[in-house]
Amino acid sequence: MAIYLKDVIFEFETHRVIDQITLNVSEQRIGIVGVNGSGKSTLARLISGLIAPISGSIRINDIDIYKDRKAALKTVGIIFQNPDHQIIFPTCIEEISFGLMQQGMTRIEAEERSNEILLQFDRLKWSDQLAHNLSQGQRHFLCLIAVLAMKPDVIILDEPYAGLDLPTSLQLRHELNKLSQQIVMITHNKDILVDFDRILWIDNGKIIKDGSYENVMPDFEEEMQRRANVSY
Amino acid sequence: MLAISIMGPSWAHNLKIGYKLAALSFISVIIFFINNWLLLSVFLVGLIFLYSSVSLFALRKGILLLRPLIWVILLIWIFHLIRGEYLAGTVTCLRLLVLFALANFVTVTSKLSDMIEFFLWILHPLKLIGVKTSSIGLALGMVIRFTPVLIERAKQLLESWRARALKRTNWRIILPIFITVIDDADRVAEAIRARGGI
Amino acid sequence: MERNIVYIALFSGLIAVLGLLPKLTLISGIPITAQSLGVMLCGVILGAKRGALAVLLFLSLVALGLPLLAGGRGGLGVFTTPWAGFLFGFPIAAYTTGYIMEKFKHMPISFTASFAAFFGSIIVLYVIAIPYYMIGAKMDFFQSLLTMSPFIPGDIIKCILAGFIANGIHKSRPNSVLSWANSR
After folding, report:
1. In the β-sheet with A154-158, what is the strand arrangement from edge to edge?
2. How far apart are CA A158 and CA A151, in angstroms?
């Protein structure tokens, strides 16, 4: 399972957000760190096929995920930061079924599969409930389930732990650890990153450090402190 | 939010908005009753000079604003031609062009903040019949402040859809857009109440 | 009180947002802009007075020079066109739609909303917009109707959509359907 970027450039209104990134990523757990505006979220959207680079190429498992959306839906899924800004349907089962129907299932097949995966996560009682009635952490989890139901090879998460309380964070972490998919996560949560296989530090659209936790994070921390003008 | 007006300064920008609007109303009424295609053409040429007197950029902007109108005008013109009403058709279309471009001239050369100020001023008499004009001002400010936020919300939902979909969004995306806005509305109302209410 | 004003303001913004959505392609391939659906829903959800105020607020902003009409249009010029009858009719359409919503609370909401949208935002709206167009474009009734006919199927579908969406909102946020709320 490989995510492959070659000379990727992305611009937004003459501002170069991603500046010639070339990557070959096949590790299981990849972290992306960087300050706001560094290009992290744009990189996440590029890798999930939501936007196309203006030059260069991006492929996952040799699939052009921007052009071949059918294959892309089986290959990569993305979960954004705020569940309230990404849940589309009133009830949980509708939310999960949506992606499945887009993948070609009939409504009945999709609802069956939705209930199956809810059962797998011991949350079958969510099925007919309004997403609104779940807690914020539970809604976040619903988004994860909706993506997992589609069985992608790669899952991208944009700051999944932001705004979650401690028990919910621990629960989410527990569930993510169990996943066999390749996970790419934007986060600055050190406790999570320490277990990751590879960390990419992006700044001003370029990868300025790429390696293991020990290689990247100390320098990253130092730079963050320098920018904040504080010292410990 | 980006308004249509262009940046000054210019003689037109310096005119008080009340005068501009009064002149606009007055001239518009006159033009409405003109049936002479030659005279209307003169007005049209006059408008080109009017825009140019501000700047060439203003003229460009004026022409750009005309674009969606062209289809309407063409359609009307063709309808009249089919009926053999060559003169009536041409006069109607010219008149529409002139009125449209004239009205837009005021918009293009007036700052949004000035327009808002004038708008609130003109609503003052409503106070006499019990309308709370302060609420109108607040509501106005809120829409301007929040519309970009709402657009951002809509974009996020569209993205969430596209991340799991083959086909483009259909009407179903409208429901979550409304729900998110309703939730935002409840939160903003709470925030206002927490700071003393209206 | 705060809730009323905030809802009016934000729904006003919604009309603008709906104008920015890409044209929704329906099953039959007819492209429709969602903006007039926004006007319908202002009446359906906010009720008569609030719905009309939201639309008036929206029109005020367009008049003040903000490009909030579908296609990025705005400014005083749009109010001089023969189509401006629709603009002037929108608040009245929203009011009528909202009025019908408020009066028929005992029926299933999707039905009431669709009917209210149809009567208020199509019948009443076109009753205002067609004569206005006739005067402005100097065309007779049938010519005017012909010009508008491509949009009528789309508008009818929007009424049905308004019903579905109203039902969805009522299911998810019943307290926010102000037209059906008991308190002021």
Report:
1. A76-79, A154-158, A182-186, A29-33, A198-203, A206-211
2. 19
Rg (CA), chain B: 22
Give the start-to-end residue ranges of the domains of chain C: 2-176
* CA–CA–CA angle B57, B61, B67 (5° rounding): 150
- Rounded CA gap, A190 and A220, in Å? 11
Two structure tokens written together for A210: 């790429």
**Beta bridge partners of residue A206, listed in sequence order:** A203
The DSSP letter of residue C141 is H
Q: What pLDDT does residue C27 have?
A: 45
8 A C-beta contact, residue A168 and residue A137: yes
The C-alpha atoms of residue B27 and residue B170 are separated, in whole angstroms, by 45
pLDDT in tens, C70-98: 888 899 999 999 999 999 999 999 999 99
- Comparing alpha-carbon positions, the chain B residue that sits nearest to C75 is B107
More confident residue, A136 or B96: B96
**Rounded Cα distance, B36 and A145, in Å:** 70
Rounded mean pLDDT, C106-110: 90
Closest CA to C77 of A173, B110, B87: B110
- Residues A177/A186, Cβ–Cβ less than 8 Å: no
A177-191 pLDDT, tens digit per residue, is 999 999 999 998 898
Chain B: list its partners (3+ Cβ pairs within 8 Å): A, C
CATH number of the domain at C2-176, please? 1.10.1760.20
Express each pLDDT in A88-124 by its tens digit: 998 999 999 999 999 999 999 999 999 999 999 889 9
Specify the pLDDT at position A232. Answer: 58
Q: Which chains touch A (3 or more CB pairs under 8 A)?
A: B, C
When pLDDT is cut at 50, 70 and 90, the band that residue C25 belongs to is low
Q: What share of chain B is helix, strand, coil (3-state, %, to 5)?
A: 80, 0, 20
Domain A3-231: which CATH number of 3.40.50.300, 3.40.630.30, 2.40.40.20, 3.40.50.720: 3.40.50.300
Q: Do A86 and B173 touch (CB under 8 A)?
A: no
- What are the domain boundaries of chain A? 3-231
pTM summary value? 0.87
> Which residues in chain C touch residue A90, judged by CB atoms under 8 angstroms apart?
168, 171-172
